[in-house]
Every structure is written in structure tokens, then in C-alpha cells.
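Researcher: Structure for this, please.
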Amino acid sequence: MTQTNWTKVIAEWEASGLTQTLFCTRNNLVYKEFVKQRCKAIAEGTFEKRQHSSKLSTITAFSKLDLHPTRPDSQEGSSSKPLAIEINLPNGINLRIPVC
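Model: Predicted structure, C-alpha cell format:
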């Protein structure tokens, strides 16, 4: 691919709002080559060095949580089960944080 083509590809990535990895996957590009060419373009002044945040993963709001862990109702075997805070995120990730 010529330098002109890489300039066009990098500009398309910037406009896409996708992560570099996802953009390369969707466009059948080798990620390491994309990064190399982007760094070269930045060094030449064709593009500015900046963090590119994905529009798909931008956090738009925060919520304050007040957590007060309590032991579960007494059930058989519950005393051996450690306390934990579980957070189920919309993207399918589940966090379990032990509480001392």
C-alpha cells in the first residue's frame, strides 16, 4: 500500500470512531502495520498524536453508589460464604469484589 493510501486509511479510522484493532479487523488490515504507518504519519506531521476514544465505549454518565454490605439472611452454609459485591455490566462482564 502506498503512503497516500495509508493517509486515506488513517483518516477513515479517525472518522470511524472505532478502536484501531476493530477498524483493522473490519478492513482486513494488519494491526502492527497500521500502527507503524500511523506513527510514521504522526512523525511526518500528517496527523496529530492523540488518544482516540471509541464512540462505542464512551462513558456518558456516572452514578454514585453508597454500599453497605450485610450478611445474607441466615441460611444453611451461608456463614461459610464470603461477602462480596457483584456488579453486572451491560456488556456481559460480571465483577465480584470480596468484602472483608
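Researcher: Any notable elements?
Model: Residues 3-56 form one domain. The first helix runs from residue 3 to 16.
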